[in-house]
Specification:
The structure is a single chain. By secondary structure, this protein is mainly alpha-helical. It has helices at about 5-35, 40-50, 60-65, 70-80, 140-150, 155-165, 190-200, 205-215, 235-240; strands at about 85, 115, 125, 130, 140, 155, 205, 235. The strands form 4 sheets. Strands 1-2 form a two-stranded antiparallel sheet.
């Protein structure tokens, strides 16, 4: 019998779906080789993504999405996160009690702050140095001091990895697990994922490029930040998602 137009269309659709599945399995195999994840689990995840999404993700996006666990991302974030942020030096002394008549209240909602503090590391600061030039002092983020603190304009992949591994770890706020400092050694895949996000195929990473890529992680709709220099910080959820790690994964 001669197939109907509907049958032919269905057959073409099935062939297209199978092509996507085959491509997805090939991509997942590459990811499995690189990360050590079981190929069957990765293949199922990627194939499902290709079938359910309106358009397939790029190969690089799929690899990133399966290369890092939340625990490995937390070993990075715990080296980079801060318990204090310097924001707007123009804001004067504030009791941080959310007073209704505060002169630093934003008419559009919320408040303006000069600094923010937390009991545990919570924010990855997205500035190189903020000096308030008064009794409040200045703040150089941990990442800027550790990776570019000796005046380097750029660092290599090996220099970057060494600096990260030498940074002290403190369990940050956000991740759904716990890591003791003595258990927080950086896995190669964590360093690789972070370098890939920041520098891509380049052999060197500059401080300005790293800052720009960190700010790209932020989902804050205020793209100017407190002083017009871009987003001021990245939290755990945005950091994990940018590196392809599931922020709510427990371990």
């Amino acid at each position: 019998p001669i197939p109907s137009l509907a049958d032919a269309a269905q057959e073409r659709a099935r062939e297209s779906t199978m092509t996507l599945v085959i491509l997805a399995v090939q991509l997942s195999s590459l990811a499995a080789i690189r990360t050590g994840h079981p190929a069957t689990c990765v293949s199922t995840h990627v194939a499902r993504s290709c079938i359910t999404r309106s358009r397939p993700l790029s190969a690089s996006a799929e690899v990133t999405a399966t290369t890092l666990s939340a625990e490995h991302a937390a070993t990075l974030f715990g080296r980079l996160a801060e318990s204090k942020l310097y924001l707007d030096p123009a804001v004067g002394a504030c009791c941080h009690s959310a007073c209704s008549d505060c002169e630093w209240r934003d008419p559009e909602g919320g408040y303006r702050f000069d600094t923010l503090s937390a009991t545990k590391p919570k924010w990855l600061a997205c500035y190189v140095l903020r000096d308030f030039a008064d009794e409040r002092g200045s703040h150089e983020p941990r990442w800027a001091a550790a990776i570019f603190g000796n005046g380097e304009a750029c660092v290599s992949r090996d220099e970057f990895a060494t600096a990260l591994r030498e940074m002290d770890f403190e369990m940050p706020m956000g991740p759904r697990g716990n890591i003791k400092p003595e258990q927080a050694s950086l896995a190669d895949e964590a360093v690789d994922a972070f370098w890939s996000y920041l520098a891509g195929p380049d052999e060197l990473l500059s401080r300005s490029t790293m800052l720009a890529k960190l700010q790209e992680m932020s989902s804050d709709p205020n793209r100017l930040g407190a002083v017009g220099e871009g987003p001021d910080f990245v939290d755990w959820k945005d950091f994990a998602r940018a590196l392809g790690a599931p922020p709510f994964e427990r371990w």
